[in-house]
Design brief:
The chain has 505 residues and is of the alpha/beta class. Helices cover 25% and strands 25% of the residues. Strands 1, 2, 15, 18, 19, 20, 21, 22, 23 and 24 form a ten-stranded mixed β-sheet that branches. Strands 3-4-7-8-9-10-11-12 form an eight-stranded parallel β-sheet. Helix 5 packs parallel to helix 6. Pathway: Glycan metabolism; L-arabinan degradation. It comes from Xylaria flabelliformis. Its EC number is 3.2.1.55.
C-alpha cells in the first residue's frame, strides 16, 4: 500500500520505503494473460501453421520465446465475448471434420482449427521455458450464452476426467491419455452487457450461476469457480455476490482505460480501477458477512481478468482491435500495475487483455515480433514485482484537473500524485520501487528514504515525446539499464517509468 500527502509550500518531494513492513502477498497470478478468438490473437498470432516461423504444431516460435520472458502464470481462453456462442466440441477431433461457424461476437467466421487440445498443447510448449518448470495454468471460460449446463459439465469431464466415462474417453481417443487438470473456470463472460448473446439480468444470472456451480462441483470438487462481475462499482456486482458468494472462489471484474490525446487523463485513468478494486472488495466482505460464509473458508478474491488501455474508437473490436501503443499508454500500463501491487491484498488473479496482436504489448509480422511500448513495464513488473507489497509513503505535488472517467476527479481528495508509486520485497530480500512520473512537463528531484548506501539497479522507460511508438521499422520506446549509488536525491524524468532495485538489510 502507498500513502500520499500533497506537498505544502517549498517541501522537497519524498518517497519513503519501509521494506520491513510487508503488508500483503502479491499473488503470482497477477501477471496472467488472455487469449481470445478475436482478430489475429489466435490465428496469425499464437497459431500460424503457414508461417516459416512456426513449429511443427503451427505455433509461432518467436511468440512463445517472447512470452516466456514474462513468466506468465495463467492464460484465460477462449474469451471474452467469443465464448458466448462457442461450442467447445466443434474444436476437437480431426481438423478436417471440424465445422466452420458464424462468429457473432466479432462478426467473423470461426474455423475451429484451434481448440481445447491445441490450447493445452500450446500451454505445454510455453511452460517448457518457465522457471523451475512451473506450469502455465489454463483458465477456461464457460459459454453461458448459447451454451448449456450439460455442455459445461462435458467440457470439465473432457479436461479433467479420470474415470471410464464418455468424455474422458473421448479425450483419450483424441490422443491425450492424461487429464489436463484445468483448475480455473469462469461462469460466463460479461453477461450483463447489451452486446452479449443471451444478456441476462443480475437476478437471472445469479440463479443460473449458483445452479451451475453446484453441478460443476459435484463433478469436480477441486474447481476454482469465478463469478461474472461487472466493473466492481455496479449494482450488478452487489446482486450477484449476495446470491453466489457462498459457492464461488473469485469475483471477476473488467475495466479498460483510455483518454484520447490527453496524456495526463490517460495515465491517471487506471486510478479508477483502484477505486473499483476497493469497492468490489467491500461488496465481497459485505456479502460474506450477510450470507454467513464460514471464516474457515478462504477469502473470496478479485479476478481482474480483463484490463488494459483500449480505445475502441481508435482500435475497433470488429476490425481486430490492433492498438498502436504510445509512451503515454506504456505509462498508463505501469500505473495499472502499480494499482495491482498496492491492492495485492484483494487480487487473486489479473489478466491483461490480450496476449498477442489484439490490444496487446506483442505484435506479430511476417518477419517476427514487435514489442510495443507497453511491453516494457509489463516485463519489469512480471520479472521483479514479486513477493510482498511493502509500506510506502509519497509526498509530492498533485494533478487535480479533469479525469477520465469524470467521477474520478471527485474521488481523489488530494488529487493524483505526479509520482505514482508502489514497492515490493521478494523472497531474496530485494526491494523493487516502481515510480511513474506522470507529468509530461516536469522532472522531479526526489528524496528517497530507505535506500541510502545501497547499490541500486535502475531501469528507465521513456522517450522524447509521449506520442512515441514502436513499429516493425522503428523502436522509439525501450528500456535503459543503469546503476545508482543511492546517495542524494534521485531525478525522475518527465513522462517516464523508473524501477529502482536494491538488496534490503
Amino acid at each position: 500500500m502507498t500513502t500520499f500527502t500533497t506537498i505544502r509550500g517549498g517541501e522537497t518531494p519524498l518517497i519513503e520505503v519501509d521494506a520491513a513492513k510487508r503488508l500483503s502477498k502479491i499473488d503470482p497470478m497477477t501477471y496472467g494473460g488472455f487469449t481470445e478468438h478475436m482478430g489475429r490473437c489466435i490465428y496469425g498470432g499464437i497459431y500460424d501453421p503457414q508461417s516459416p516461423l512456426s513449429d511443427s504444431n503451427g505455433f509461432r516460435k518467436d511468440v512463445v520465446e517472447a512470452l516466456r520472458e514474462l513468466d506468465i502464470p495463467v492464460i484465460r481462453y477462449p474469451g471474452g465475448n467469443f465464448c458466448a456462442t462457442y461450442h467447445w466440441q466443434d474444436g476437437i477431433g480431426p481438423r478436417e471434420k471440424r465445422p466452420s461457424r458464424p462468429e457473432l461476437a466479432w462478426l467473423g467466421t470461426e474455423t475451429n482449427q484451434f481448440g481445447t487440445d491445441e490450447f493445452m498443447a500450446w500451454l505445454s510448449v510455453l511452460s517448457e521455458g518457465s522457471p523451475e518448470g512451473k506450469r502455465v495454468e489454463p483458465y477456461l471460460c464457460l459459454n453461458m450464452g448459447t451454451g448449456t449446463l450439460d455442455e459445461a459439465l462435458a467440457w470439465v469431464e473432457y479436461c479433467n476426467g479420470t474415470r471410464d466415462t464418455y468424455y474422458a474417453n473421448l479425450r483419450r481417443a483424441n490422443g491425450h491419455a492424461e487429464p489436463y487438470r484445468v483448475k480455473y473456470w469462469a461462469l460466463g463472460n460479461e453477461v450483463w452487457g447489451p452486446w452479449q448473446i443471451e444478456q441476462m439480468t443480475a437476478d437471472d444470472y445469479a440463479k443460473k450461476a449458483a445452479q451451475w456451480a453446484k453441478a460443476l462441483r459435484l463433478l469436480d470438487p477441486d474447481l476454482v469457480l469465478i463469478l461474472c462481475g461487472q466493473d466492481g462499482t455496479a449494482s450488478w456486482d452487489h446482486t450477484v455476490l449476495q446470491a453466489c458468494v457462498p459457492v464461488v472462489d473469485m469475483h471477476s471484474i473488467h475495466v479498460y482505460t483510455a483518454a484520447g490525446t490527453s496524456h495526463v487523463k490517460n495515465v491517471t485513468a487506471p486510478l479508477a480501477a483502484e477505486r473499483a478494486i476497493r469497492i468490489a472488495a467491500s461488496l465481497i466482505e459485505l456479502a460474506r458477512i450477510e450470507r454467513g460464509v464460514s471464516v474457515s473458508r478462504p477469502p473470496t478474491k478479485i479476478c481482474f481478468d480483463e484490463w488494459n488501455v483500449w480505445d475502441p474508437e481508435r482500435a475497433p473490436g470488429d476490425k481486430g482491435a490492433e492498438e498502436q501503443y504510445t509512451l503515454s499508454d506504456a505509462l498508463a500500463v505501469a500505473v495499472w500495475l502499480n494499482v495491482f501491487v498496492r491492492q495485492s491484498r484483494y487480487i487473486g488473479m489479473a489478466n491483461i487483455a490480450q496476449t498477442v496482436n489484439v490490444i496487446s504489448p506483442l505484435m506479430t509480422t511476417q518477419n517476427g515480433v514487435v514489442r510495443q511500448s507497453t511491453w516494457w513495464p509489463l516485463l519489469l513488473f512480471s520479472r521483479y514485482m514479486r513477493g510482498w507489497t511493502v509500506a510506502t509513503h509519497v509526498r509530492a505535488g498533485a494533478y487535480d484537473g479533469e479525469t477520465q472517467p469524470a467521477w474520478l476527479q471527485g474521488a481523489l481528495e488530494d488529487g493524483a500524485s505526479w509520482l505514482d508509486v508502489s514497492a515490493s520485497v521478494d523472497e531474496q530480500g530485494y526491494v523493487s520501487l516502481a515510480v511513474v512520473n506522470i507529468s509530461d512537463k516536469e522532472d522531479f528531484e526526489v528524496e528517497v528514504k530507505g535506500i541510502a548506501g545501497k547499490d541500486v539497479s535502475v531501469y528507465t522507460i521513456t522517450a522524447p515525446q509521449v506520442t512515441a511508438t514502436n513499429t516493425e521499422s522503428k523502436e522509439e520506446v525501450g528500456m535503459v539499464e543503469g546503476m545508482w549509488n543511492g546517495e542524494g536525491p534521485y531525478k525522475f524524468p518527465k513522462h517516464s517509468f523508473t524501477m529502482l532495485r536494491w538488496k534490503a538489510q
